[in-house]
């Protein structure tokens, strides 16, 4: 029997809403997983990618992570992991550094055996490079086998991986696929193999309304019962509370009604997200946010989703910036290629974690037609505003501007990644961040 904690999408270093407190929360959530691993005496902690939120974590985040991993190492519990798209660098990976320090094992096509289970790894692979994969995994003689991978797999939301194809073409018969990238926890059986996401360990976007946690996975036919060989149980994490307040205003109701609804919740040290819908009078978001923080909230954000009529001629309301974006785009005479890029960035049908790959794919498809890169070319920009501004910000969130209460990183994710390839980084080297070149 082998018992492991399956986690992922910890996004350490994410200063959500530009808050240093929230930045610490993401590290604390990872530390809580490790504490549970030590207390529960599991055989390993398996991390399915996006340990860090950024390919160049700041030094306090890096040192904090090393400190947490040392606690795991002191308890004799191995840390097995793959590389996610948020943290992926062109050369060496942070996971390589931790492996050199004896604090981690980077999973790959050779088996890493823990107990009676062989673990394999598949790092984040951009769509453009997947045709080169041969799924040639080395043999093992363990009782069970699991593939740890970072990506969006069927049958879950935003999927761009064919799970059945991966299982069919792999040289190894896997009992389970332990996945990361989708911030929504879920489990399904595909071609006789259990496939599961643990979800993110902290809320990386406003769409992640359910509580956070991780999976406890047991490889043991007796424990699973029936014909199953794997048992998957979800364990909750005690993370910072998020308070979601929905206010549907009627005629004659306004800011006082919003405050009344906010006051009915326990706001102590919480992130408070207020959605205003319906009709009613104008509401000043900043005033409501100040009220909530005065009542004890750590952070408050108000989104007014109403279209408010005004006496003056205003073409766009704060509730619907889409019209302003569309008007601006109509006057830009974008080339067909630029229109493709714009549509991918703002489309509601493209998950945040897939934005970069979608952009790359659309540009590559245009390379044989260089006229498509000329402004005013065929295709225009009539359809460039077909995608809306993503206010649900799931998966996992190319945006890192946390002033927006719907801002996220990864919810596919939820996984708002626009950093899939992580090929470039213009960060100021003096900004407190460190790169792999400093160590490898």
Concise summary:
This protein is 24% helix and 20% strand. The protein has helices at residues 20-40, 59-74, 94-100, 163-169, 221-224, 255-263, 285-294, 322-330, 336-346, 355-366, and strands spanning 2-7, 44-47, 79-81, 105-106, 112-114, 117-122, 144-150, 176-180, 186-190, 193-197, 213-219, 230-236, 242-249, 271-278, 299-304, 410-411, 414-415.
Largest sheet: 6 strands, mixed
Q: Work out the strand percent.
A: 15-25%
Number of domains as seen in the coordinates: 3
Secondary structure: number of strands? 17
Q: Strand-and-helix sequence, N→C?
A: EHEHEHEEEEHEEEEHEEHEHEHHHEE
Q: What distance lies between the first and last C-alpha atoms, to the nearest angstrom? A: 37 Å
Describe the structure.
- The protein is α/β, with parallel strands linked by helices and 440 residues long.
- The protein folds into three domains: 2-236, 4-Layer Sandwich (Purple Acid Phosphatase, chain A, domain 2), CATH 3.60.21.10; 242-297; 328-415, no CATH class.
- Helix content is 24%, strand content 20%.
- The protein contains ten helices and 17 strands.
- It has a six-stranded mixed sheet with strand order 4-3-2-1-11-12. It has a six-stranded mixed sheet with strand order 5-6-7-8-10-9, with helices on one face. The protein has a three-stranded parallel sheet with strand order 13-14-15, covered by helices on one side.
- Helix 1 runs parallel beside helix 2 (59-74).
- The chain is globular and about 70 Å long.
- The two termini are 37 Å apart.
């Amino acid at each position: 029997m082998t018992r492991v904690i399956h986690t992922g999408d910890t996004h350490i270093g994410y200063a959500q809403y530009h808050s240093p407190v929230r930045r610490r929360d993401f590290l604390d959530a990872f530390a809580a997983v490790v504490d549970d691993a030590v207390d529960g005496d599991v055989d390993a902690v398996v991390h399915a990618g996006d340990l860090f939120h950024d390919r160049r974590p700041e030094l306090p985040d890096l040192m904090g992570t090393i400190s947490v991993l040392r606690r795991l190492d002191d308890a004799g519990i191995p840390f097995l992991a793959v590389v996610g798209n948020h943290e992926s660098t062109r050369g060496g990976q942070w996971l390589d550094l931790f492996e050199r320090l004896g604090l981690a094992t980077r999973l790959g096509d050779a088996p890493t055996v823990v107990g009676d289970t062989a673990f394999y790894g598949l790092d984040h692979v951009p769509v453009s490079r997947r045709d080169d994969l041969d799924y040639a995994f080395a043999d093992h003689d363990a009782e069970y086998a699991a593939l740890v991978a970072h990506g969006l797999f069927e049958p879950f939301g935003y999927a761009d991986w064919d799970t059945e194809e991966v299982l069919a073409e792999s040289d190894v018969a896997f009992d389970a696929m332990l996945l990361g990238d989708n911030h929504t926890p879920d489990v399904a059986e595909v071609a006789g193999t259990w496939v599961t996401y643990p979800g993110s360990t902290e809320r990386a976007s406003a769409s992640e309304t359910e509580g956070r946690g991780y999976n406890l996975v047991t490889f043991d036919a007796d424990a699973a019962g029936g014909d199953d060989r794997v048992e998957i149980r979800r364990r909750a994490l005690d993370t910072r509370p998020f308070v979601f307040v929905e206010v549907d205003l009627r005629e004659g109701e306004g800011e006082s009604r919003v405050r009344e609804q906010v006051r009915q919740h326990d706001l102590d040290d919480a992130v408070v997200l207020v959605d205003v819908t319906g009709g009613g009078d104008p509401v000043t978001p900043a005033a409501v946010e100040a009220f909530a923080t005065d009542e004890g909230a750590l952070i408050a954000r108000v989104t007014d989703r109403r279209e408010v009529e005004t006496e003056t001629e205003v073409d766009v309301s704060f509730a619907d910036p889409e019209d302003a974006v569309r008007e601006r785009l109509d006057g830009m005479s974008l080339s067909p290629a630029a229109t493709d890029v714009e549509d991918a960035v703002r489309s509601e049908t493209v998950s945040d974690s897939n934005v970069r790959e979608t952009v790359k794919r659309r540009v590559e498809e245009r390379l044989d037609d260089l006229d498509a890169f000329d402004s005013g070319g065929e295709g225009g920009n009539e359809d460039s505003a077909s995608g809306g501004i993503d206010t649900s910000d799931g998966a996992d969130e190319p945006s890192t501007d946390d002033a927006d209460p719907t801002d996220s990183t990864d919810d596919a994710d939820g996984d708002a990644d626009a950093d899939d390839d992580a090929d470039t980084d213009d960060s100021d080297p003096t900004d407190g961040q460190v790169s792999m070149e400093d160590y490898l």
